[in-house]
């Protein structure tokens, strides 16, 4: 029997003037995750799929800074997004 996995999504924002680390600004599963992804697509906000990272992020509260143990993987996502933005402006 095939296991059906519920879609999960989270959005982070980083403003070094306000926070020490990226902050969770949206998070959800199922329909809520689909809405987060739809809004990202609608607003041309790049996103990356990472099953391990999303499992950790959906456990955090909205407004919570990501914990230090996630810094490395979130930094890699932010570099990915920065590179996408750079390519889009060429």
Count of alpha/pi helices: 3
CATH topology: name from scop
CATH superfamily: secretion proteins EscU
Assign the structural class, choosing from mainly alpha, mainly beta, alpha/beta, alpha+beta, or little secondary structure: alpha+beta
Please, could you describe this protein's structure?
The protein is of the alpha+beta class. The chain has one domain: 3-Layer(aba) Sandwich (name from scop). 41% of the residues lie in helices and 14% in strands. The protein has helices at 31-42, 51-57, 71-88, and strands at residues 8-13, 23-29. Strands 1-2 form a two-stranded antiparallel sheet. The chain is globular and about 35 Å long. The mean pLDDT is 88.
Give a brief outline of the structure.
The chain has three helices and two strands, in the order E-E-H-H-H. The protein has a single domain (8-88), classed as secretion proteins EscU (name from scop). It starts with 7 loop residues before the first strand and ends with a helix.
Q: Which features does this protein show?
A:
90 residues, alpha+beta, name from scop, two-stranded antiparallel ribbon, 3 helices, 2 strands, globular, T3SS_substrate_exporter, T3SS_substrate_exporter_C, FhlB domain-containing protein
Topology:
Blueprint: E1 8-13, E2 23-29, H1 31-42, H2 51-57, H3 71-88
Antiparallel strand pairs: 1-2
């Amino acid at each position: 029997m095939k296991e059906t996995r519920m879609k999960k999504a989270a959005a982070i924002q980083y403003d070094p003037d306000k926070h020490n680390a990226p902050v969770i600004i949206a998070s959800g599963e199922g329909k809520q995750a689909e809405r987060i992804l739809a809004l990202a697509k609608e607003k041309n906000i790049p996103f990356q799929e990472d099953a391990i990272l999303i499992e950790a992020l959906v456990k955090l509260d909205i407004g919570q800074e990501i914990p230090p143990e996630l810094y490395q993987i979130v930094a890699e996502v932010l570099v990915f997004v920065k590179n996408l933005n750079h390519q889009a402006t060429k």
